[in-house]
Amino acid sequence: MTSPCTDIGTAIEQFKQNKMIIVMDHISRENEADLICAAAHMTAEQMAFMIRYSSGYVCAPMTNAIADKLDLPLMNTLKCKAFSDDRHSTAYTITCDYAHGTTTGISARDRALTCNQLANPESKATDFTKPGHIVPLRARDGGVLERDGHTEAALDLCRLAGVPEVAAICELVSERDVGLMMTLDECIEFSKKHGLALITVDDLKAAVAAKQ
């Protein structure tokens, strides 16, 4: 039976060319697919596409080093009356917007610009207002070989493609069943309809392991 997934080398090459990639995780984990794009050259059109086909909750995985430089502390280190760890140990930081040339921060244009500047090595902590409308995530340093989540998958895609180590991701929602996430069958249809590569976290783990 032919695999519905894209060859990992082809997917990485497309990612390098600033195309979005669909990454599916394990059935035993979230069993969800994320749309992932390199943040450095993300366009407003790509952000609008992400918002349209997700719940609109766009996150920006990055290295701990970048998050430290931009002063993006983990949310669970901030003082609050109630606190509970995310069950998948997702490392959410305080949210942010780029402070220059944006309006409210919520538009696709503003959010794309925020992602661009999170990936800009010249950016400083003071270039961002906090809280904002993009949700940075701190990836584990060991990537998918340490934690097989979409956060780490996004960063390993950046590394394999040789682009700045900040991405934009969102979880795809079902177009058939309102209120549910997109299933694997839907992801296959979606990837064909929009000409997007479809890979799994396991594909990435194998590619990363082969590089070591």
Automatic annotation (TrEMBL):
Is Thylakoid one of the keywords? no
Q: Does Manganese appear among the keywords?
A: yes
Q: Broadest EC class?
A: lyase
Catalytic activity reads: D-ribulose 5-phosphate = (2S)-2-hydroxy-3-oxobutyl phosphate + formate + H(+)
Q: Name one GO cellular component term.
A: mitochondrial intermembrane space
What does the entry give for GO biological process? aerobic respiration; riboflavin biosynthetic process
A single GO molecular function term of this UniProt record: metal ion binding
Identify the cofactor(s).
Mg(2+); Mn(2+)
EC number(s) given by UniProt: 4.1.99.12
- From the UniProt record, give the pathway where this protein acts: Cofactor biosynthesis; riboflavin biosynthesis; 2-hydroxy-3-oxobutyl phosphate from D-ribulose 5-phosphate: step 1/1
Q: Which InterPro entries match?
A: DHBP_synth_RibB-like_a/b_dom, DHBP_synthase_RibB
| Short name of one Pfam family | DHBP_synthase
List the keywords (alphabetical).
Glutathionylation, Lyase, Magnesium, Manganese, Metal-binding, Riboflavin biosynthesis
What is the UniProt remark on how the cofactor binds and its stoichiometry? Binds 2 divalent metal cations per subunit. Magnesium or manganese.
Residues folding into a coiled coil are none
Q: How does it assemble?
A: Homodimer.
Give the protein's function: Catalyzes the conversion of D-ribulose 5-phosphate to formate and 3,4-dihydroxy-2-butanone 4-phosphate.
The entry assigns this protein to a family as follows: Belongs to the DHBP synthase family.
Record-given protein name: 3,4-dihydroxy-2-butanone 4-phosphate synthase
